[in-house]
Amino acid sequence: QVQLVESGGGLVQPGGSLRLSCAASGFTFNTYAMSWARQAPGKGLEWVAGIYSDSSDTFYADSVKDRFTISRDNAKNTMYLQMNSLKPEDTAVYYCSAKDSWGQGTQVTVSS
């Protein structure tokens, strides 16, 4: 079955950076588009970024454009989210998704 495991979250100061990873298994990774979403405390799920199966195109929410970069390594069955210039409003649990499945999430907290 599809398994998605996020990692790389943590506590970071405003302006800092983090790199999230999503390790995938249970499906043919290089044939599926993937995405990242997040859920801030007390708020609904927000789509953050997406990437085609062959990395030929990427997409971003306006709230993270020019600060976040989504990428994938099909040889390692892993997707990444490089997050720069982090803001307190980026605080959320971050989830990766593929084939209508979701990982368990990783907490990102941006605070001084």
Order of helices and strands: EEEEEEEEEEE
Content-based structural category: mainly beta
- End-to-end Cα distance, whole Å, is 40 Å
Q: Count the beta strands.
A: 11
Could you tell me the radius of gyration in angstroms?
Answer: 13 Å
* Mean pLDDT over all positions: 97
- The helix content, as a percent range, equals under 10%
Q: What summary fits the major beta sheet?
A: 7 strands, mixed
Q: What portion of the residues fall into strands of 2 or more residues?
A: over 45%
Q: State the helix count.
A: 0
Low-confidence stretches: none
Shape: globular
In short:
The protein has strands at residues 3-7, 10-12, 18-25, 34-39, 45-51, 58-60, 68-73, 78-83, 92-98, 101-102, 106-110. The chain is mainly β and 112 residues long.
